[in-house]
Design a protein that fits this description.
By secondary structure, the protein is of the alpha/beta class. 18% of the residues lie in helices and 37% in strands. It is built from 2 helices and 7 strands; from the N terminus they run ββαββββαβ. A 5-stranded mixed beta sheet has the order 1-3-4-5-2, with helices on one face. The protein has a two-stranded parallel ribbon with strand order 6-7.
């Protein structure tokens, strides 16, 4: 089973404090508690397995034992070219494409020919 992931920058060995948004997500949305194992990442390829050690009102502290650095291969890049959806669907599409680790998103516009 995959561990719940939370953003933390910078990640250091020892105690790490999550920002207010991530703390809120951990406690109120995911409803995790002290003693739960989680994974921290910084968005630059560094991740760490951690254990939640303290939960305060807007601050969560997690203990990190070891830090790993993940390198992405530069040889393959993934680009999606999609027509701009209507309404708020484009705002939904951007995070979903980011979760899939796409390198580029190219919005396209098309015009219907007149009859």
């Amino acid at each position: 089973m995959k561990l719940p992931r939370f953003y933390c920058n910078p990640i250091t060995t020892g105690k790490n404090k999550l920002c207010a948004e991530e703390s809120h997500h951990l406690t109120n949305v995911s409803r995790l508690s002290v003693g739960t194992d989680i994974e921290l990442f910084d968005g630059s390829g560094t991740c760490a397995k951690a254990t939640v050690t303290a939960i305060k009102r807007s601050e969560v502290t997690a203990e990190v034992a070891n830090i790993q650095t993940i390198t992405r291969p530069n040889s393959k890049r993934i680009t999606i070219a999609a027509s701009i959806p209507t309404g708020k669907r484009f705002d939904w599409m951007i995070p979903k494409c980011t979760e899939l680790c796409l390198d580029r998103i190219r919005p396209l516009t098309y015009h219907r020919p007149l009859k």
